């Protein structure tokens, strides 16, 4: 009841538009049995027509936003979603889509606010937490992103998007074992997107190399080569004018994936292992200095 009371007046009017005439026709169907089929059918038709009208409003808003997006008119695309959200302020999906537009525009604060609205409207969904994790990743704040990814996992542990995000973060944080576990889990969850799959195989290769397991790294490299068509898909995506933020985030990974497909893959695997050993040695030296001081 509290949620109903909090709805905007326009929302309650639209609800009345749906239920009022339909309820009247149902009452007439009960009161006049010989016209039950006529009035009952009318009630159903009214409800369906009104539902289609609502759906049409949403579709028009999204079509306008996508049309502007294709023209690289991000300000206009966001304005189209602003109008849709003003008309339908309780739809979490609208905020989620606008957050994606804000991220493309580089306005991470606005994207963060919209993802928080997604969390408010869909508290049991992983979408808001995943969105906040992606914003933190875009800022380079991987530890914070990891916290959001963990919250997302509490909502939907088996969702491939959650596992993909955790694999990405583990790769960035040089947690090879977590990267392997999350990447394999995402692939086993029925991931169909070739772009995501090629990156997951890359992170598997890199994780095995960091652990010094070069035989397993070579086996994972075979999987990477088998999914190489995903790199072509990435090329088409990154050619878009709206892909600047995505290019900055994924450029190093895609460069490494391309390098692994060439004859110098062994050199890259050995380099990753050497970098991990050097980092571990530096951390031990830092700990030793702290103990002595």
Provide keyphrases for this structure.
globular, disordered N terminus, mainly alpha, 293 residues, 83% helix, single chain
What does this structure look like?
With 293 residues, this protein is mainly alpha-helical. Among the domains are: 57-86 and 94-102, no CATH class; 162-281, no CATH class. It is 83% helix and 0% strand. The chain has helices at residues 2-6, 9-31, 36-70, 74-87, 92-105, 108-121, 127-139, 142-155, 160-172, 176-188, 194-210, 214-226, 229-238, 244-260, 265-292. Helix 4 (74-87) packs antiparallel against helix 5. The model is unreliable at 1-11 and 35-55 (pLDDT under 50).
Topology:
Blueprint: H1 2-6, H2 9-31, H3 36-70, H4 74-87, H5 92-105, H6 108-121, H7 127-139, H8 142-155, H9 160-172, H10 176-188, H11 194-210, H12 214-226, H13 229-238, H14 244-260, H15 265-292
Q: What is the total tally of β strands?
A: 0
Which percent band covers the strand fraction? under 5%
What is the succession of H and E elements? HHHHHHHHHHHHHHH
Portion in helices: over 70%
Mean of the pLDDT scores? 82
Instruction: Show unreliable segments.
Output: 1-11, 35-55
**How far is the first residue's CA from the last residue's CA?**
62 Å
The Cα radius of gyration reads 25 Å
Give the overall shape. Answer: globular
Class derived from helix and strand content? mainly alpha
How many helix segments? 15
Major sheet summary line: none
């Amino acid at each position: 009841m509290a949620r109903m009371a909090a709805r905007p007046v326009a929302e309650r009017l639209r609800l009345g538009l749906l239920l009022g005439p339909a309820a009247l026709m149902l009452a007439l169907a009960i009161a006049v049995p010989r016209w039950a089929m006529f009035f009952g059918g009318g009630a159903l038709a009214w409800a369906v027509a009104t539902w289609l009208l609502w759906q049409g409003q949403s579709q028009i808003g999204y079509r306008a936003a996508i049309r502007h997006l294709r023209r690289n008119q991000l300000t206009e695309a966001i304005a189209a979603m602003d109008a849709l959200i003003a008309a339908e302020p309780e739809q979490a999906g609208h905020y989620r889509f606008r957050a994606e537009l804000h991220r493309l525009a580089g306005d991470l604060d606005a994207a963060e606010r919209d993802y928080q609205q997604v969390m408010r409207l869909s508290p049991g969904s992983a979408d808001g937490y995943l969105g906040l994790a992606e914003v933190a990743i875009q800022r380079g704040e991987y530890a914070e992103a990891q916290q959001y990814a963990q919250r997302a996992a509490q909502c939907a542990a088996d969702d491939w998007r959650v596992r993909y995000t955790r694999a990405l973060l583990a790769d960035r944080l040089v947690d090879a074992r977590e990267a392997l576990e999350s990447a394999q889990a995402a692939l086993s969850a029925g991931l169909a997107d070739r772009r995501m799959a090629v990156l997951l195989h890359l992170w598997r290769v890199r994780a095995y190399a960091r652990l010094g397991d070069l035989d397993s790294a070579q086996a994972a490299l075979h999987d990477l080569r088998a999914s190489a068509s995903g790199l072509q898909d990435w090329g088409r995506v990154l050619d878009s004018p709206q892909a600047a933020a995505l290019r900055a985030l994924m450029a190093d990974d895609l460069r490494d994936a391309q390098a692994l497909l060439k004859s110098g893959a062994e050199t890259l695997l050995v380099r990753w292992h050497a970098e991990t050993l050097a980092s571990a040695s530096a951390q031990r030296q830092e700990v030793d200095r702290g103990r002595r001081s």
